[in-house]
Amino acid sequence: MQLVVILSFFAVVIAFAFAVYLYLWVKKQPSENKRIIEVSSLIQAGANTFMRREYGVLARFAGVAAVLIFLFLPEPLWNGSLLGQDGSLVRHFAMTAAYLAGTILSAIAGKIGILVATSANGRTAEGAKKDLKTAFLIGFRGGSVMGLAVVGFSLLGVMAVLLIAADATILLGFSFGASSLALFAKAGGGIFTKTADVAADLTGKVELGIPEDDPRNPAVIADNVGDNVGDVAGMGADLFDSNVAAMASALVMSQALDGGFGANTAMVFCYAALGLIASIIGIACARVGKKGNPTGALNASTYTTTAIFLVLTAIVTPLLPGFQWRIWGASAVGLIVGVVIGITTDYFTDDSKPIVQKVAHASRSGSAFTILSGVSYGFISALPAMVGIAVSALVAYMLCDPLGEGYALFGIAMAAVGMLSIVGMIISNDAYGPIVDNARGLAEMGGLGEETIRIADELDSAGNTVKAVTKGFSIGAAGLTVISLLGAYMSEVNEALSGMGKELLTGFDILDPTVFFGILIGAAIPAVFSAMLILGVDKNAQRMVGEIRRQFREIKGLKEGRKGVKPDYDTCIGIATSGALKELIPAGLVTIAATVLVGFIGGPSAIGGFLLGNIVSGLLLALFMSNAGGLWDNAKKYVEAGNEGGKGSDAHKAAVTGDTIGDPFKDTAGPSINTQITVVSLVASLLSGLFAAFSLFG
Amino acid sequence: MQLVVILSFFAVVIAFAFAVYLYLWVKKQPSENKRIIEVSSLIQAGANTFMRREYGVLARFAGVAAVLIFLFLPEPLWNGSLLGQDGSLVRHFAMTAAYLAGTILSAIAGKIGILVATSANGRTAEGAKKDLKTAFLIGFRGGSVMGLAVVGFSLLGVMAVLLIAADATILLGFSFGASSLALFAKAGGGIFTKTADVAADLTGKVELGIPEDDPRNPAVIADNVGDNVGDVAGMGADLFDSNVAAMASALVMSQALDGGFGANTAMVFCYAALGLIASIIGIACARVGKKGNPTGALNASTYTTTAIFLVLTAIVTPLLPGFQWRIWGASAVGLIVGVVIGITTDYFTDDSKPIVQKVAHASRSGSAFTILSGVSYGFISALPAMVGIAVSALVAYMLCDPLGEGYALFGIAMAAVGMLSIVGMIISNDAYGPIVDNARGLAEMGGLGEETIRIADELDSAGNTVKAVTKGFSIGAAGLTVISLLGAYMSEVNEALSGMGKELLTGFDILDPTVFFGILIGAAIPAVFSAMLILGVDKNAQRMVGEIRRQFREIKGLKEGRKGVKPDYDTCIGIATSGALKELIPAGLVTIAATVLVGFIGGPSAIGGFLLGNIVSGLLLALFMSNAGGLWDNAKKYVEAGNEGGKGSDAHKAAVTGDTIGDPFKDTAGPSINTQITVVSLVASLLSGLFAAFSLFG
Lengths: 698, 698
Fold this sequence. Notes:
2 copies of one chain form a homodimer. By secondary structure, chain A is an all-alpha fold. Chain A contains 17 helices and no strands.
């Protein structure tokens, strides 16, 4: 098995080396336009300020959590023999250290993303002055740096924790560190970015009729900062978390199957490493012709990476001892279903397909119809993905069940690992979006001319379309991961129960009233969680709308664009920052508190139900919100491209309203639900011992 | 037990007699205004045309379903010995007859509702010319006629089927008849009513700025017809269905516990009869002072009825042999939780409470904020109801579990029976709404003057507020009913499995991959179902908007209100009718087809999961949609009352957009989901034998 460890380590080193190379390549690209450099550094400064303040808040949260973890996990400190044979105190230290390592690596990954993205955005804009090909490469490679960093860190971190601690439960602590940070980073960044975006659109586009990214708009810099802190750093933390959780849940099971570091554990690492290598090849190959189609290029590299992964794993599986074809099948099914979910998502959100055009057409009758049709198609769009997740879980289970007890759930975990194997590629595609979005804004503000803006627009639109696909992917992977975490939860509970000499759980029967009780409450949590985030955006954006209106009213010459008159960008950045920091903690705490409450009331069975309800309604709402949001965004773009009356028409106004509603759906609430269900699953696993020891009705 | 049968029969007779008395009382009220009589008869004619055409379509559907039921249920016809001892052929006949009886009684109840409502609306308007007290009484008593008819028919029907067939499975056929008709009646009526409402509001209020119910608006009669066919007839069919399903599922279990007609079965009938008597008393006592508060009066009669039911059952329970206090406790918990759910719903939708006011305030920043805040509070509002249902199911289970095997689920069924015991009162309150809504329109069109319109407005607003409460009630009851139907499904499956000599199911474990598969797909169905209904409204309303715009453009003098110029009301009624009939079948069929498909793919376990997923996401979405819709409606009314800028302000426009979106949420999709989950549960129970005999993976 040393071979696999060496392979993984090798993949990580290559990934880091390639990331550094790409970063230097991006840095080498010309950056000459003074105005762009100036605005770019404003964005960088704004992003850094927010990140510093956010990490400050999160560090305090992590500190408190670390103390609680040290006291209570894996079991209350005073239960074990402190310095006994099982090394109780050492385990508590290890758990706490793993937790902190998870938070720190997650934070670093986000920070790197911001660093590159804010260097790449201006250069992409200037690249667009040259041609599409150059601009595409800068944007894509900028995104790839974060993709490689995230996957490299997650593989390295998981490997290090497992090799040092040799204890899968400690791995859950590491994963919880990554998740809890991701929850807040995603929520905080999501609130920040949509506060600015919504407020800028409503006052600028709708009220004053000035173009997007117009430098007169006081919220324009905040909007660009938001793209970075929400869509780059937040998304990076999110996928770092998903990737770690998928590996951790697979490793908890593989360790149980192997009784230590055996073939199954090796398989998890090997596949993750091969996925990273496939992503590196895919990233290296991605390019587009001078007049090429960027959406096609991005999707092509996803499919290439998928194919490379499938081939590489198919080559390695028969060569290594103990690697089983059935498990390969499970991971292949996961990956293929991920791609299929992406394609169906694309059908609902791509403006060359009928759905987006129907919603755009409905906008002619007023914004109510934009909303009603978007909500409806958003609901329908959840069906194929739900079926896909259901089928892949069923197939993975059936494939691996004959291998022996415990393999069925391991199969589901491997389907999740398979789906996330190409996450390096997914993140690259995803981070490309905000970079080119920023570039478009900078091209506008730097006065780079119509043609450059048109190229930037084309790149931006590709980013939007691809984003829908990658979101479908990450929600699907989160779904499979939490299903396998449900299995991990049961084995953790049973370990605790057997330690207490209590009767073991054999499953979670939905006719058991405590399970049912948990299901109903678990199902309500994602709704409440997303509502709190949306309300956060809503409240905050209203505040910012007030400020923008004030500036246009009070700063003479601003509206007319008189030379030398500048808006006060900083106040808007300040509003977004303090609002986001105020709102991010409650939503996260409510979900954790609900888990703890249900656990202490209904006991381990209720938590099983709670996790299920949470997963089911979380997936449904996440898919609905992400897809409806993407749909509205592209319907607006479709109208702006001159259809259904084009810019300035009533249909356009209605489509902009749709987009405004879709913004917090798709960029704040929708993707945060992913993290929310992972966090709840991990909290449940980690606290299983406490719930087993004490509960009111359980 | 004869005593109980006599009591039930007595209650039904009293209810019918009282209904006839109230109907005659309403008829006796003055109806003099020529214009009102004319418009009233237009509404009546429109409603009758739609009902005739709808019932025509449904009769064909029921005919096909009856043939299938005859061939396949309780088991395929060719399986049994046709004329053997077990009377196989007779059972098939009985099943088919029960099914048809269910559809016919449901249709009659709806028809009666329309008959009274369309007589009461004009009289209520003229009553409002006198005073609030008179108008309130006419509106409320008109609604009560349907309330009494629905409950009377459901109790009579269930009793007759059980006494004649002496077979609880046949009762499920009766219940399925009621449900399948309700599904289509609710969907068809819901699409009709909101097509007209949305189109009338958008063109009239938003585009032209003419008042609601202005006779110049070509859609105004269609809008009033819609109130009757959707909110009166559809709602009546819906609650007939819920009530029958709750009794049927309780009786399936009581028959199993009693081994025939014993104490538990008697208890179901006795409580239903006492609930009916309590409702009669409540209805007889309801009144309001000349300057009184109609909302208070309606709520007070609900609370009175609740108290009367609790007292009556508490008196009877110790007197009758075999009646158990624990079961009384379960039904009391159900009813009390129903009231609590109603009160929490009220908190989210009442315009004197902070939530509605916040949404109204958010409307100042534009319609996007109206929608975002409404969606958020709608999501949050689902939590208390979900917790309420979870707690009442848990408590009922725990209370009745000590009575012996099978009693726990019977307890949950009795909680549903308890919650629905006062359904006569609930329907009266609910049907009051559309009657006074119509009355308001008629007062406007009949030119009855400002003061009369103000009174009608006050009555209308009370109808809206109370509607929220009754909807919370009916969703809660549907939730408990389907939970107990889940139990009924398991006993039906096991009966079939034991007949085939196969291994029995002991439960539905969420870690079983077929169960999980079913859960995920089941959870997506209510989303798809409601999306199809909303799209139906959306498409249809766009068509009608086009027609209204055409009329205003082409009919000279219409916009200006020149004397003698009338719009073409009939074309609008025709559009709503044909659109609704076209859209109502597919949505219903999709849900039934999905159930059948999942059953034949995954087998009985997958269906168990499917039902659970369906229930959980169905409850969540139904609560979200109903409450968000009510919230927006009242936020608009709050603005119209002069707050946040009042009528004509930007906030008002935004609030109207919110209301337009909320309309199909709360009156088409939301309440139809109730029926959808009941239908799916019944289909599953009825087809359990087929799924047990054949499935791909089960």
